[in-house]
Write a structure and sequence with these properties.
Blueprint lengths: L10 E5 L3 H12 L3 E5 L3 H9 L3 E2 L10 E6 L12 H9 L3 E2 L1 H10 L8 E6 L4 H14 L4 E5 L16 E5 L2 H4 L9 E4 L7 H4 L2 H9 L10 E5 L3 H12 L3 E5 L16 E3 L16 E3 L15 E2 L8 H17 L4 H10 L8 E7 L7 E6 L6 H8 L5 E6 L1 E2 L14 E7 L3 H8 L4 E5 L1 H15 L3 E5 L3 E2 L7 H14 L3 E2 L4
Parallel strand pairs: 1-2, 1-4, 2-3, 4-5, 6-8, 6-9, 7-8, 9-10, 10-11, 16-21, 17-19, 17-21, 19-20
Antiparallel strand pairs: 12-13, 13-14, 15-16, 15-23, 18-22
């Protein structure tokens, strides 16, 4: 646990008693504060009471006595309208903060000689894989690393600053909205596409929330920004105006272009690399370094990602570029960073091969079942669909704005689509003449997809990449992914073992 300083002997209101709220209360108490807890739900209050915390109905509390309000990231700060606790705090002049801000204050209070480095990752897609990948690379290089935040362990439940050399923290736009002094040593913005617009009042508010990751960075800090979208470039321009150390990451930069700000581009070898590395086979990705003013140092690329079996596709090549650049910023050698990329085991529900069926026929072939349940929007599903020449695609759930209209250029890659959940009808209309069937539920979709893949012959991919939230049929994307895994194994598929 990370004790939170600065509130000793003072009352701090904590609203929202999920994972982050309870953890924040524990950390505040460990730092000498007097946390006062409340939640609209009975179960959260019961857990807090069982742990001995003070409960007080914040709807009728005297807010003038609070030093701060620690707000759950699940409660709206501004849109669609401020949560009622925010209104009360604002009226009383009480600052509204979140668990990442408490973490930042704990780090700042640590003596400089003992202070660990902090790498923070945000973005619409890819942030969880990038976070886990960086943590893996640093650990393989021998550093004492703690990984958490919006992924896995709540940030304040991580080991104390004196016990680690580096924190690798995933942060959401909701969490960033509640920060003021968070200043990571390495700040990473993977990409930006429309998401959570209702919570941020539109796209500009969403982008502004993401950009808060860089707001308190000083001149010695490093900013790594994905620029495969216009919003990324706008962020880079704003950071350059502040004279920060900015490195751009792209999968789309032609080899003859060297970003004057410095960058670690990723290129498709079949189309984009110069002659001296064209011997690599088509369709494989490498990372090349342009930060020294050369696209390829001495004619040798940083890393050929073909052996990295847990990092398929262009989007994972971008994640690898972020991880390599972040590790190098912390002093990890090039060789150790590349070795970490090659041995990464992958994450559950992110392009995770969960099983395979081998045909006992003359034609042979293997059907691989890929769980990409984390793909809760069309842009994330795009990355998965682009990773394979063709796939039997399971999609659907509770759709985001725009549905799958933006994926129309990839419809020729879909052997057949199997649609589930609330979005099934709308997705069917968008798919039009693209082969599809409304399967309704996960088990039916998996069974139909497996049968069609078997009939197709050869090696095939059955891909769950829903392009939707899960909340119509499942409590979260993890449960949805486990339902896919169970359905696959129920077919008699062999669990896939990385190696």
């Amino acid at each position: 646990m990370i004790p939170v300083p600065g509130f000793a002997g003072r009352r701090v209101a904590v609203f929202g008693l999920g994972r982050s709220g309870i953890t924040a209360a524990r950390a505040l108490k460990a730092g000498g504060a007097e946390p006062v807890l409340w939640d609209d739900g009975v179960s959260g209050r019961m857990q807090a009471e069982a742990e001995g915390f003070s409960l007080e109905d914040l709807t009728v509390a005297d807010w003038s006595g609070f030093a701060a309000l620690v707000l759950s990231p699940g409660a709206p700060l501004t849109h669609p309208k401020p949560h009622w606790t925010v209104d009360k705090a604002t009226a009383a002049g009480v600052p509204v903060i979140g668990d990442i801000e408490l973490f930042a204050r704990a780090i700042a209070a640590t003596p400089a000689s003992l202070r660990p480095r902090v790498i923070a990752i945000t973005g619409t897609n890819g942030k969880s894989t990038t976070t886990a990948l960086i943590g893996w690379v640093l650990k393989q290089a021998g550093l004492k690393v703690a990984v958490g935040g919006n992924i896995g362990i709540g940030v304040l439940a991580l080991p104390a600053p004196t016990e680690v050399e580096a924190y690798v923290i995933e942060v959401s736009s909701y969490q960033l909205d509640l920060t003021t002094t968070f200043a990571p040593d390495v700040a990473i913005l993977t990409n930006i596409s429309p998401d959570h617009l209702d919570r941020h009042g539109g796209m500009e508010g969403y982008v502004a929330a993401k950009a808060r990751l860089f707001q308190a960075q000083g001149p010695q800090a490093v900013a790594l920004v994905g620029v495969d979208d216009d919003w990324g470039w706008a962020t880079v321009n704003a950071l350059n105006a502040r004279h920060l150390r900015v490195t751009t990451i792209t999968t789309r930069t032609p080899p003859e272009f060297i970003d004057p700000t410095g960058g670690v581009p990723v290129a498709d070898l079949a189309e984009r690399l110069p002659d001296q590395v064209a011997a690599f086979e088509a369709g494989r990705f490498i990372i090349v370094d342009a930060t020294g003013g050369r696209l390829v140092a001495d004619g040798v690329a940083i890393a050929d990602l073909a052996p990295a079996r847990s990092l398929p596709g262009r989007h994972n090549a971008q994640n690898a570029a972020f991880a390599w650049a972040a590790a190098r910023a912390l002093g990890v050698s090039h060789e150790a960073a590349v070795q970490g990329l090659m041995t990464f085991p992958g994450l559950a529900h992110r392009m995770e091969t969960v099983g395979q069926l081998h045909r006992q026929t003359d034609q042979g072939g293997t059907i691989k079942f890929v769980n990409d349940s984390k793909a809760t929007n069309a842009d994330a599903a795009r990355q998965a669909l682009m990773s394979y020449p063709t796939s039997f695609w399971i999609a659907g759930g509770r759709a985001k704005d725009g549905g799958i209209e933006d994926l129309r250029d990839l419809f020729p890659r879909i052997a057949r689509a199997y649609l589930i959940g609330e979005a099934a009808g709308d997705f069917a209309r968008t798919l039009g003449d693209t082969p599809h069937v409304i399967a309704g539920d996960m088990a039916t979709a998996v069974a139909l997809a497996a049968a069609d893949a078997r009939a197709a012959g050869g090696d095939q991919i059955v891909l769950l990449s829903p392009a939707c939230a899960s909340f119509d049929q499942f409590p979260d994307f993890e449960v949805r992914g486990e339902a896919f895994r169970a359905a696959v194994l129920n077919l008699g598929a062999t669990p896939f073992v990385q190696g």
